[in-house]
Design brief:
2 copies of one chain form a homodimer. Chain A is α/β, with parallel strands linked by helices. Chain A has helices at 52-59, 69-75, 87-93, 114-126, 140-152, 162-167, 169-177, 191-199, 207-220, 233-253, 268-283, 301-304, 347-354, 365-379, 385-404, 423-430, 441-450, and strands at residues 6-7, 17-19, 64-66, 83-85, 98-103, 131-136, 155-161, 181-185, 224-226, 259-263, 290-296, 306-311, 320-325, 359-363, 410-415. Chain A has a 7-stranded mixed sheet with strand order 1-4-5-15-10-11-14, with helices on both faces.
Chain lengths: 454, 454
């Protein structure tokens, strides 16, 4: 048991393997289907988009997968990330609950995204790829992939959702500073982009649209592969360094969480922290552990979506995956948590939700920013709007403990990134300009209609 | 000797005392003079502006001054800050030199400024002050003081140099997020601001002007005191936690620096890292140690200024201090390292330079940003433009070692802040829009004319 505020590990304690939850699933994942034949796909179907090593990881059921030395070496720049006891927040809330957060914002990219960006850049480089093509919502993934590409000597093209491109010029410049090229999506660089621009010239864009563009770019060029910042199994796998470190750190703190919290857009930062703990729940080590995925009410995939086969992108270029979805044609409103504006959800997170191994909750924007500023004034760090959703949930759990007189509650959440590039969102909140928009029943009906018939 | 990239200390190793270099000076500091009588001032002359405890620290010759528990407790949020071996930068340069940097950008404020902001807010709170008034150049000090004020329950007013207010809206919003009010300086809120606006309606402002406004605000109100982010002895004192930690960390690394580098505007981050090492030089423990202060060629106070009595502000409200100065009426060009746009220099740094215990060098903007991007692409962190001056000097020292075939050189520099709020500067650099302006002989002649006659 330590009295330190920040629980730090040495670089030797950076995990040597990623944890693959597919090895421990009580029911295996439903197969991914080919968009044309609607039959289960094989590795060859993905070769145009991904290097073979990542395709293998995507379907692997090995419990532990080695982290390459070259990746661990760069992890050392900021990992292990700190686990921080939020004593000042506890005091501000007057809660008897203990609140811990894993801080991924200390990475050079400012978020957890670099954990997988480095791995993906490494495997691509090793298999002779020259350029990576990707999309970015809030800009955190684009920043991470541009840094990783620069470190491994790859070119990088980023299709940035238009609303973020306009709201977050600094993210764009950061991506360019590491040598990547950035286009506002939908762009005129791809057939998918041109088609959508023709139909909806004033669209604010969406992750689904940007994915269509990035996938098309990679599919069209032999030495270009596609990199995705969330959703896929291998991406979630790489993020498990977060939870594996957190488990060691909670042990040093002499605690174990009652509830583990993360925000979800595609699902990767939640999965990264939660999956190693889900393993404890499945194995019986922590039967009563709660794992909570937090999403915006404007894009409530897990809490309101259908569990069905759908495309990962808007145009319908990707394989069909079984997931919670609001329909691949849904364009979420331009809320400030751009990283959570995705119509679908990682199949692994969806599957665990269907199996009731995890739960989900959704929040409107304004109460999320209110919690974020309370956190900032207590702990000093201004959260990214995405991570602020996890903060809000942690605050609510701590208040619930206070109200219930529960003196033994331990809360752990993932502060997946800082908000240094999101100050325009805070400005909008402080000046009362943020709109609280919830997903409507009408939207749900049209979402269900858009689902492909399987 | 450790092989870790990041050399970390535990929270117990946060220094318990600040190091006061006034105790070790071979020649004492020249006295500070009253702006009216031109006689040495006493504590009573400063009471309108500062709490008594800080006035005592300003003139103390005690070698060690206790850090209050309340301040150390908040330091724990991010201190001890990491000392990082820049192995990837060394490799990129092909240098045999070892490069270490102390990273102060991991603080909630994004720079070293919070080290003194917390101490100042604490002493003011303890003495019953209700509001703090201050200036900010690049916005780093304003952010730090707004966070510290929020933590200690004080109101806070920030006069932000107009060019930074316009160039860095995100810094302004960050300051507001912590509850402080921000005005572009010169403002119409003070007599000093109105006078300058009448004379130079299009001025981009300067630290000197903003100081005049903040000082006037504090002097006019009984329960308001003034807080300065650099220059003064007590401010530099509070920053010595940086160097004291770095000494312990270098010991863990099994190394001792041959050269210690920091950028200088007012002088505080340089002093914070360097002063504990200057003590080693004075005591004879490290006779050949070099300490290098790095400034912009557009505002080259130490390398081109006069060593003379001058005002700390533009209007002439402050006491007269003996320092290197470009003249209190000098308004530096709107270069992007806003924190380095100050006509004067800390009297302690000036004194050490006069005594030849430290040296100074100046650089133009473009080569500084070039070095900053090389650093970012190697180490991942985008430096603040101010800190980038220290990066440039460290890179030059490493290249010099390579060219001289010197295999035993150890370089230590202060990376005083990150550049997340300075991306507009990187945009200007990347698009070739940054102008390289050096201080001219004409400017020097008019600077000398503006000096008060003592």
């Amino acid at each position: 048991m330590t009295e330190e505020t920040k629980i730090l590990l040495s670089e030797k304690q950076i995990p040597e393997k990623w944890y693959n939850i597919q090895a421990d699933l009580p029911v295996p994942l439903p197969p991914v289907l080919h968009p044309g034949t609607r039959k289960p796909i094989g590795p060859a179907d993905l070769e145009a988009l991904f290097p073979m090593e990542l395709i293998k990881q995507e379907v692997s059921t090995e419990k532990w997968i080695d982290i390459p030395d070259e990746v661990r070496e760069i992890y050392r720049l900021w990992r292990p990330s700190p686990l921080i006891r939020a004593r000042r927040l506890e005091k501000a809330l007057g809660t008897p609950a203990k609140i811990y957060y894993k801080y991924e914002g200390a990475s050079p990219a400012g978020s957890h995204k670099l954990n997988t960006a480095l791995a993906q850049a490494y495997y691509n480089k090793k298999e002779g790829v020259k350029r990576l093509s990707t999309e970015t919502g809030a800009g955190q993934w684009g920043s991470a992939l541009s840094i990783a590409s620069s470190f491994f000597g790859l070119k990088c093209t980023v299709y940035m959702v238009k609303v973020s491109y306009d709201q977050k010029p600094y993210r764009k410049i950061m991506i360019q500073s590491f040598g990547a090229e950035v286009f506002a999506s939908p762009s005129d660089k791809t057939a998918a982009g041109r088609k959508i621009l023709a139909e909806m010239p004033d669209t604010s864009g969406s992750l689904g649209i940007a994915i269509s563009e990035a996938v098309e770019d990679a599919a069209k060029h032999d030495d270009v592969k596609y990199a995705l910042g969330s959703v896929l199994n291998h991406v979630l796998l790489h993020q498990t360094v977060i939870g594996l470190e957190a488990q060691k750190q909670m042990e040093i703190a002499g605690d174990y969480p009652d509830v583990v919290i993360g925000c979800v857009g595609g699902g990767s930062n939640f999965a990264g922290l939660a999956f190693p703990f889900v393993a404890d729940k499945i194995s019986g080590k922590a039967k009563n552990l709660r794992l909570v995925a937090v999403e915006p009410s404007a894009c409530p995939t897990l809490t309101k979506g259908a569990y069905a086969y759908d495309f990962g992108d808007t145009v319908g270029l990707t394989p069909l995956i079984k997931m919670f979805t609001l329909g691949h044609t849904f364009v979420p409103p331009g809320i400030h948590a751009g990283g959570l504006r995705y119509h679908g959800m990682a199949p692994l997170v969806s599957h665990l939700h269907k199996l009731k191994l995890i739960e989900a909750v959704s929040y409107l924007q304004n109460p999320v920013f209110e919690a974020a500023l309370l956190f900032a004034k207590s702990e000093g760090i201004i959260p990214a709007p995405e991570a602020a959703h996890a903060v809000k949930c942690a605050v609510d759990e701590a208040i619930a403990a206070k109200e219930a007189g529960d003196k033994n509650k331990t809360i752990l959440f993932n502060l997946s990134g800082h908000g240094h590039f999101d100050m325009a969102a805070y400005d909008a909140y402080l000046s009362g300009k943020l709109k609280d928009v919830a997903f409507s029943d009408d939207e749900m009906r049209s979402a269900l209609k858009s689902l492909p018939q399987i």
